Amino acid sequence: MSSVRVAPGGTLGILGGGQLGRMIALAAARLGLRCHIYCPDADSPAFQVADAYTQAPYEDEAALSAFAARVDAVTYEFENIPAPTAALLSAARPVLPDVRALETTADRLSEKRFVRSLGIGTAEFRPVDGHGDLAAAVGALGRPSVLKTRRFGYDGKGQTIIRPGADLAESLARMGGQPAILEAFVPFTKEISVLAVRAQDGTVATYDLVENEHRNHILDVSIVPAAVPAGVEAKAREIAAAIIAALDYVGVLAVEMFVTGAGEVLVNEIAPRVHNSGHWTLDACLVSQFENHVRAVCGWPLGSTARHSDARMTNLIGGDVDAWARLAAEPHAGVHLYGKREARPGRKMGHVTRISPRSS
Amino acid sequence: MSSVRVAPGGTLGILGGGQLGRMIALAAARLGLRCHIYCPDADSPAFQVADAYTQAPYEDEAALSAFAARVDAVTYEFENIPAPTAALLSAARPVLPDVRALETTADRLSEKRFVRSLGIGTAEFRPVDGHGDLAAAVGALGRPSVLKTRRFGYDGKGQTIIRPGADLAESLARMGGQPAILEAFVPFTKEISVLAVRAQDGTVATYDLVENEHRNHILDVSIVPAAVPAGVEAKAREIAAAIIAALDYVGVLAVEMFVTGAGEVLVNEIAPRVHNSGHWTLDACLVSQFENHVRAVCGWPLGSTARHSDARMTNLIGGDVDAWARLAAEPHAGVHLYGKREARPGRKMGHVTRISPRSS
Fold first, then answer.
1. How many CB atoms lie within 10 A of CB A139?
2. In Å, how far are B35, B287, B292, B353, B356 from B282, measured between CA atoms?
């Protein structure tokens, strides 16, 4: 790809108007860039902070063309861009990261094969397309193991654990006829992630390693620095850097990994976008994951990924947000609310980052 | 005043659409608040990041009424709100800070008398309404001394130095027939400022002392921590806290002061708003001056004013902004650009804050 530069005063188009799009837009504003959000939802949090927005379906060709005509480059907050949408926009304007990178990561099977092809470890896995495959796969990987749809899974949706005694036909039925993958259970001691950013010239930077805790399959807490041996941190950074380079990816992505008791680092999943486990960078780094994403896609130099403080980020899910006034009264808490009207159960409404002086 | 609370999802109205309004709006967005900007200028930087805006003159009663109807409370980025505008809005919605605080500080003479009434030092001064007054005042205060209009001066506008040999009639003519004040020259060793914030319940917090350097009467550099003895820092904080309380002010204000060779602290000027010398708080504090202003006027608990890093903020004036790409490549520089189209000489286009680990 030839290089793209959106200079101050230029307009960045963003597909998706949720909290990630909102925080990308706020970061772009800091750099003197205008943002134009494209999202089908009327109540999109990102609309509230953008210079312009288009509320239209992702299939609306006229609206997409008009959007493209008004922006200098396009990025996105989510990885499931419909292919025709991507094709139409890419023909008119630079779209970054290149959506070809998404093809690899959109399917758990191709993602795992890609990671393995780089010599990087993952859980053992087997493709599962029918009952016969599943029985053989469970025979090979044992129980417990995890059956997942290959595409469109997030926050634990589209996956089921095959425990001893579980009925395989029932487990397979939960996949709704979608192609699936069986993954061996990894006896991990920690879940970690690395946020990596890559500029158009190939420069790669990584943020400090994040330790993550999930609740009901949704990220609950991210802690930085992660309490892991220095060797694990170095290895995790290397893995993320190798993946982002091999994908020829421009912008920020997150690599979620498991650390085993033996100190092995296995890749669990690649999220080709800014990521919830990087929200702490807003308060504990000079340049956040959102700003570095904007810098990369707009052809600016990358900013520092250094951390000035330790951080503990906690998601505010559903009714958690009702505690906003108490949280705002905490002396070292950075409160971030996303401007969503309805606090439905399981919905990410905001987050709070508690910072403390840098320990290491 | 009864207490005002704008909860997440509520709308804060902001009079003025310049960079201060823009940065207030960005801080409010972080808290899940919507902003509606009111400004007569078509190319207002704050319009680009707000949920809604009204472009209309400050004298347009219909537009002001419609604006008031759409917001939950009103604040402002500048201190020269026309009295009828303030009256109309105050009748419809809470306006914070209360504009009565502005009356005291709008006139340099009443401001200095107010500061003196609190037992706080200022430069010696004399009111000057005509040539006779000026001659007597110069006789009393000596040369050099500084002749200033009482109202509407900023960034060195409306002031002239009376040096030995200066023609008094000519100096007075520069005041354009406006009421003026003569101030004794203060042989200061440092210019400093304190950003203070006061909540609706009277709680006051101050940010760390800032050392300022001006160029052509415009703020050039702000440095934190200021290199002053601990006694000076404590005294300066006390002065700012006394002033903000005596004004019964809600929100952020800046007090600019001189430090003399003898360690005396004299108040130079009160800026009843968020202030350029507080921009470093965006990068070196968890909660910036802008967010604390929003918290105060919206009835939230104040956030921490603690500094996690040392900071050196440099304004980007006029063509300085052309260096944006070079600045963005500096490893520890936070770059902030205001989204203004034209880089006219003397115009504040952005700022850059270089941070370093906290030294003290």
1. 10
2. 19, 7, 11, 9, 14
Residue B119 domain-assigned (yes or no): no
State the pTM of this model: 0.97
Is B357–A357 a contact, with Cβ atoms under 8 angstroms apart? no
- Which of A95, A112, A138 marks a domain boundary? A95
Host domain of residue A145: 124-184
Q: Is B67 left (phi over 0), alpha (psi -120 to 50) or beta?
A: alpha
Last residue of a domain, one of A143, A166, A184: A184
Q: From the CA atom positions of chain B, what is the Rg in Å?
A: 20
Distance of CA B205 to the CA centre of its chain: 16
H helices present in B40-167, as ranges? 61-70, 83-92, 100-106, 108-117, 131-141
Q: Centre a 10 Å sphere on the Cβ of residue A306 and count the other Cβ atoms it contains.
A: 17
Report the CATH number that the domain containing residue B222 is assigned in CATH.
3.30.470.20
Does residue A115 sit within a domain?
no
Q: Identify which of A300, A306, A358 has the shortest CB distance to residue B325.
A: A300
**Mean pLDDT per 10-residue section of chain B, whose length is 360 residues:** 88 98 98 98 97 98 98 96 95 95 94 98 95 94 96 78 94 91 96 98 98 94 96 97 98 98 96 98 98 98 98 97 98 97 95 96
Phi, psi of A119 (to 5 degrees): 80, 20
Kindly provide the ipTM of the predicted complex, given to two decimals: 0.96
Task: Report CB contact under 8 Å: A48, B51.
Answer: yes
Whether A322 and A255 map to the same domain: the answer is: yes
Q: How many Cβ contacts (< 8 angstroms) between chains A and B? A: 117
**How far is C-alpha A69 from the chain's CA centre?**
28
